[in-house]
Amino acid sequence: MAKRDSQINLYQHSEKKIELLKNYLESYLNILNRSDHVDNIHIYDLFCGEGIYQNDGKGSPIIILETIKDIYYANIAKKHIGGKFNCYFNDIDALKIKKLKSNIAERHLHYPEIGLLEFSVDDYRLILQKLNQKLLGLNNDKAFIFIDPYGYKDIRVSDIKDLLKTGKTEILLFLPTQFMFRFESKGTPESLKEFISELMPIDEWPTSETGVDFIEKLTISFRKVLGGSSFVDSFIITRDLNQFFCLFFFTNHIYGFDRMLEAKWKIDEEEGRGWHPEHEFTLFNLDGKQANTLKYEEKLREFLKEARTNGDVYRFQLENGHLSKHTNYILKKIQNEGKLISTNKDGSFARKSAFYICYANFNKEPDKITLKIK
Questions:
Q1: Per residue in 45-61, pLDDT tens?
Q2: What is the CA radius of gyration of the chain?
Q3: How many domains does one find in the chain?
Q4: Quick one: pLDDT at residue 56?
Q5: For 333, phi and psi rounded to 5 degrees?
Q6: Could you say which of 286, 311, 326 is where a domain stops?
Q7: pTM for this structure?
Q8: How distant, in Å, are the alpha carbons of 106, 354, 364, 368 from that of 351?
Q9: 84, 180, 187, 189 — which has fewest CB within 10 A?
Q10: Residue 222 and residue 157 share a domain
Q11: pLDDT at 3 over 70
């Protein structure tokens, strides 16, 4: 079967998928590698491909290896000796794995001191069985799993749930949601029926108005099925007019979720929601972009009508897809209006413009101050 051109050349919309992956790895893996509570980091790319496209675009395995190589040697230079980065690349096509090995060797992307480098040519269903067994023995290790399938017929919601069970795993999953949406109400294939039936009874699935609407329904359904201990987020990628694909992120750790939001906002500086071609071709790019926080500000003001701790506000911020800098900006604005009451535990007034809205304070002192709008 002839390959689609998008399988052999890296298109712009696919490049954004890889950019999000890179942004997240750069931010989160470096922190994990410097943590005293994490030993080794295991990275799995389950549909890795050959690494380099025909138009010289870099695929996920090359980006992964470049990123961990930079992190590892930068930390060594700073005399920080962290754990190993163990990488596992799988693709059912043996020729792709052979080319990937060659591409890695040509670019000198890996050395034994960095960690293990392993390859396999397993079917996705088989490698999941092996992976679940490995994850059970993580102990103080962490794992990141990238799943970029050739379609979606093998993807199961129950698999995501199983992979998250240990609480030490982050997952980034790409789904061709445009194709799924197109068949949602027109000749729905069995593979899509099976996928949706894991989220809710197929006859209860509401018809989507648009591709974005379909993605939002999937995101909400993922959250319900995976439960309150899991964080689920989406990053929408627009290929052409009204054609939307999506990366879904899953984690049980709030700071992993924090880092993914940061990665998203690096690409979409206005909404932190996704990417579309107009982001690259606009006259306003020269002026720089500002985050659109108006709707979030309305929600935050409503939320603060009751007394909330800095930890409450941090979690609320993440649940609404925003960053600490956005929250601090809004809180300063409310404070300058003379409408914000900020108090310490002993009831005294807290220091002005100090809101402690970040993961470090959430983790160590989530009730350091209380905030409320007059």
A1: 999 999 998 888 999 99
A2: 22
A3: 2
A4: 86
A5: -60, -45
A6: 286
A7: 0.91
A8: 56, 6, 19, 11
A9: 187
A10: yes
A11: no
